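Sample pair:
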Amino acid sequence: MASSNQNTDQFKVLIAGGSLVGLGLALAFERAGIDYELFEKGGFAPQLGASIGFHPHTIRILEQLGVWEDIERQVKPLKHRKHYDENGNCFEDSHVLVNIEEILQRPIVFMERCKALEVLHSHVKEKSKLHPQTAVVEYEETAEGIILTTENGARHHGHILIGADGIHSKVRQLMADNIGVTNPNLARKINEAFTSEYNCIFAVSQNEKFLPDGMVHNVYYNDYSAIAAAGVTGLVFWFLFVKESKLTRTPKCPQFTDEDAKTYIQKYGNSLVGPGYTVKDLWESRVTATMVPLEEGIIPQWCHNRVVLMGDSVHKATVNPGLGGNTAYEGIARFTNGLIPLLKENPTPSVEQLTEVFNKYITGQAPRARRVVDISGSITRYEAQDTWFLKFAARHIVPWFSDRIKAKLYASFSKGGPWLEYLPLPARDIDIGTAAEEPIQSIAPRLIAGTIILGAAAIIWQTRRGPLASL
């Protein structure tokens, strides 16, 4: 098939992946006047049983992109959280979410991922740049740029390629293959960077009076846990997390079928999630459900020549605190904040100049991504009571710490998130550029994100005793 996009003079970004990160990039580039083409192997808003939580620092970016109002109309901000033991006893009644909203002037919200994607897609002005049902199969770098080949045989010319195509990233695989020509050991490390020790059923169910709008229920068992959140009227988003007997590593992490999920429900279905309802009750009221492994990790190299990775393709966290997608939007901000000034100065930058932008994005994003991956994994193990210490801390230490303290710790973390420096800030953030940010390093990095919802006083204690990685 003949090549498309023959004009190689105007700088163009090629994006692989049309989920939250890809569409966010499309909007960010469109607002900046940067040409791009986006390729998605499936549709743009599939109903896969998935949900997404947006935190205040991401909401700020969504406001800048002009999409937040459409999302806000669909959600009920999360206000309260109750923590239960295996017998249905509430051992912590938390109002930290209310405190967070008071401090940051923005809530934490939860919604169907497909609905969020619909909003993002609707705000893209030039739909002709979005190519659904168009999988990437290979790329080739030239002296002038990069040529992307899709499964229909079309060849698309651009200057950089962003792999925003998720945990099973084709672009990451292709990049590793190219690196492997001269450094097979590094290529192997990239391919094997993610591990999985927990599996998860995530689902959306009809909210048949399971819990009121704005409420989150957490229940703690030995080696498994569950969360239910009512973030949209009429629906409940829920998760069942189960520890497996052995750790697996990409590319050999398991894949699951509907029958596997049903087997889990048979085993854990009678477990209470909140007062008067069980995992099985939620399952029987489901709209959609999916079972997946919870990969976690960060790859050792994020870019190569004209290719750079973003989102789950490069850093993957367990989903318990809901920070994965939010961390990806931080990446969007950091990357575009570096690329746009370069293109204004030099519309046809060299590979060396692009590499400087890539490295600046990575240097800014990697430490925070590492914190999120570490703390998310710790929360997963905390909620599943992976050790006697975590069980004791959840029941007897954490509830004694005030919600206000937990909220302030989280707020310090959230305030450290970047924004789109080339777009106007919302009025409430007008002084953000001059406000003194409390150094994250001074608050025990592995603690901060853990205080988001459940308040990890246990992590404070553990941090003083030694690294969380030892849990």
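The chain has 15 helices and 22 strands.
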